[in-house]
Structures are given as structure tokens and as C-alpha cells.
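User: I've been going back and forth on whether these two constructs are worth ordering. Before I decide, could you fold them both?

Assistant: Sure. I'll take them in the order you sent them. The first construct and its C-alpha cells:
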Amino acid sequence: MTSEALWALGRGTGVTALVFLTIAQTLGIATRSGRRVATLPRFAVADVHRFAALAGTGLVAAHLVLLFFDPYAQLRLVDFAVPFLAAYRPVWLGLGTLACDILVVVTVSALLRHRLGPRAFRAVHWMAYALWPFALVHALGAGTDALRVWFLALAGGCAVIVAGALTWRLRADFVEYADTRTEAHR
């Protein structure tokens, strides 16, 4: 495979991973709400969330492998685990490394969910709120398509979707907070 093909596939898997992680983030918020999303029952929302998260994780893995073998990116194994050491755009790649490190922790916690218990799982899963913005900023800073209109529109759309879901989650009438409100008014 040529270096141009590696670079194109590496970029493509990164952009597609951002879309899947946006879906996973948004549906993860929706799953906690206890409400139906569109016409999907809650269990279906959870299943789509899980699928999008796994697909996003697989695409991130492909993104890393493809760019590792690309001579232009000049990535070393240490760059996948330790942030801000890369020779190429160290700050932007470091944010990607942070996102990847968090993704590994969140994924492992999801796979061990039944062994961790709901409290520990939820505590670790809250890290996804840091993962997504790190991934977005990484894409905007390290991506060679970052200044193209199509990518800015895609990234902006992802940001609006996650911001909308987060705003919805922070509302006082969010279902998860119903018990807290009821206890506070007693």
C-alpha cells in the first residue's frame, strides 16, 4: 500500500471514528435519560449506543495502525500511550493520545461492567465526557482536512449534536434527576 493510500485511509478512519463517537456520546446521554428517542425503545437506544461505541473504537484502532505505518506521520509506539511526545504536531497529536487513552479505559470498563458494579462503571464512564472534546480538538488541529469546508461542517454538526444532548442532560427535568428532585422537596 502506498503512503498516499495509508494517509487517506488513516484520515478517513479518523473522521468516521469522530462521527461514530459522536453518535455514541449522544446516545449514551439519551440512554441515561430513561426516555424514548424517536421511535426506539430504551433498550434499542442502548444497543445502538454500544454498537456506535464499538465501531468508533475499531475505527480509532484502524486510524492508529494505518498512520503508524505511514512514513509521513512518523508515529512511534510511545506516541500511542504518552501524550505530547510526537514529532509531528505534538499538542494536537497529544490530545488524540489523551482521547485514545481515555477510550481504552472506558472500553475496558464497559467490557468489565458486570465485574465492576454500576457505581464504578458509571464513574469511569463519565470520562467519556472528556474523551469526545479531546477527539474533536485533535481532529481540528492535527487533521489535514481541518480547514476544508466539508470537514468544518461535519465537525460543527458533531459539536452541535453533542452540545444539544449535553444541554438536554443538564436540564432540571432530566429523568435521571427525578429522584433527587422528589427527595429535595420532601
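The second construct, handled the same way:
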Amino acid sequence: MKEISVSELQDNMFDAIGKEWMLVTAGTQEKFNMMTASWGGTGILWGKPVAFIFIRPERYTYEFIEEGDKLTLSFLGEEHKEVHKICGSKSGRDMDKVAASGLKPYVMEDGTISYEQARLVLVCKKLYADMIQEDKFVDKLLINRWYGEGHGNLHKMYILEIQHVYVK
């Protein structure tokens, strides 16, 4: 993969995150986990290029994100939807998602994990994290739609500094 500056990034991140989806991966080369995510965004905050993601505490990947200070956001392309379906519906607690999905882990220079299949990788460092709180919703209809009966816990929001951008 080739490193580019964040200002050289050509992707429409609305489509990349919302339609293509991404793999959020945290942990070490010895033990890591990944999950599919389609909620998040990118921008500038505190004078830094940032990404923001939302992870539910019951997700296995959450434990890995909490333990470390870095993670990757890997974009595989639309042709890898089956990988995303596995990584978004199965838990790494119960199965080897790497084997099941056919992913080929790739250790980045800083020790974070991505995948040979990735067309774009954002290597990120955690800057801020906080739980979404029910009493802070201005549009109360969102609570029932996304967190009502059977939807699970509220998400934790992470704001991440984008430290490196890699493209194929």
C-alpha cells in the first residue's frame, strides 16, 4: 500500500462509510478483532483530521478498542460485501472471523492491523470517547428507531485522529 496525505484522499466518505461500509479493527498482531461498521464520518476537529465511529459496548471489538489507543478503518470495496456480512453479524468470541471471511491480515508499520483486501486504510489514534446518552437526544424519535425494543445498548462515540492514510 502507498501512503498519501489526508488532503489527497479522493473518496466520498459518505458513500465509503454508508454504502461500502468499513472494518473497524483493534488489538495486536497476536490478538485482534474486527467488525463491520456503517456509522461514522470524517472531518476536521481540534485542528486535526479526524474520523468518528460509533460502537456498542456489547460488541467484542469494543473490548479491543478500549484496551488500545490505536485502530484501523479499512475499506474493502463493494465487491467484499460477503466479508462485511460475516464481520457484521458474527462475533469473534464465537468464531474465527478471519478464517470464515477469507480476510488476509496485514500488519501496518505501527503494529495496527488491516487486510490485504483493503483498498483504503485509515490508521487512527483515539482522541475522545463518550457514551451516547438518551437524555441528550433532541429528536426523541431516533431513540425508538435505533435503540428501542431489541436494539441493544446505546453506542459509544469515538473521535479518532487520522494519523496515516494508505491506498492501493
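Notes on the second construct follow. The chain has one domain: 2-167. The mean pLDDT is 94.
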